[in-house]
Design a protein that fits this description.
Order of helices and strands: EEEEEEEHHHHHH
Helix content: 55-70%
CATH class of one domain: Mainly Alpha
Strand order of the largest sheet: 4-3-2-1-5
Structural class: alpha+beta
Shape: globular
Strand content: 5-15%
Largest sheet: 5 strands, antiparallel
Distance between the termini: 128 Å
Number of helices: 6
CATH architecture of one domain: Orthogonal Bundle
């Protein structure tokens, strides 16, 4: 059993080892009593501890980094259940000073204390392999990591840029409406032109028809 196999399940206390995943859930084993159970995905969310990040005043850190600091410190850990909120916050402020106290709630700190006790009992507080792997990836893939950081920066810039684009899109919309209005004006101008043409045609037809009518009347008068 390894740290990366350990998960937390919403709605259930304690920690579990992830044994298998299915389309409709997961099979886990409790670290407390070794019982195995099926966790339906429609009722619970399964979160690997290795994927959890903790807010700090700088870049976020993985949960195991905080647990490692807790392991290295000689400061007495407060009781997660009986310890006061002030004592728990004071403990983490000493153990991990860069932790963001505004975004990391007291309930999260209590949960970390509980998880630490469970992991310690299961002898899963050895993060040397994870740390060595992270350092190896950093040494061998510095450009890639730099690109990833730049990508994250660009994502933030894209969000701002999108808002600017959205604001800028109003102007083309106004132009489109202006063009539409111009088109309607142009169509409005065409209608009088058509009416003028129709009137001219009617006048021409009337002029063409007057002569025969007069001629007919004249013939009728002669016949009389």
């Amino acid at each position: 059993m390894q740290y990366r196999e350990i998960v937390a399940v919403t709605g259930l206390g304690g920690l579990f080892q992830l044994l298998a995943t299915k389309s409709d859930g997961a099979i886990v084993r409790s670290l407390a009593d070794n019982t195995t159970k099926f966790i339906p995905s429609r009722l619970h969310n399964v979160t690997p501890l290795d994927s959890i990040e903790i807010y700090t005043t700088g870049n976020n850190v993985r949960l195991h980094e905080v647990l490692q600091q807790m392991k290295e410190q000689t400061t007495a850990r407060p009781d997660a259940k009986k310890g006061s909120v002030d004592s728990i916050r004071a403990y983490f402020k000493e153990v991990f000073p860069t932790m963001d106290e505004e975004r990391v709630y007291s309930s999260d700190m209590k949960k970390m204390l509980k998880w630490y006790e469970i992991l310690d009992g299961a002898k899963l507080l050895d993060f040397s392999a994870i740390t060595a792997e992270a350092e190896s990836e950093t040494d061998t893939a510095m450009p890639a990591e730099g690109d990833a950081q730049m990508s994250e920066h660009e994502k933030g810039a894209d969000v701002k840029q999108l808002s600017l684009i959205e604001e800028g899109e109003e102007k083309p919309a106004k132009k489109a409406r202006a063009k539409k209005a111009a088109a309607s004006d142009a169509s409005g101008e065409e209608k009088p032109a058509k009416k003028t043409a129709a009137r001219k045609k009617a006048d021409d037809s009337e002029e063409d028809g007057e002569a025969p009518k007069k001629t007919a009347k004249a013939k009728k008068k002669d016949a009389e």
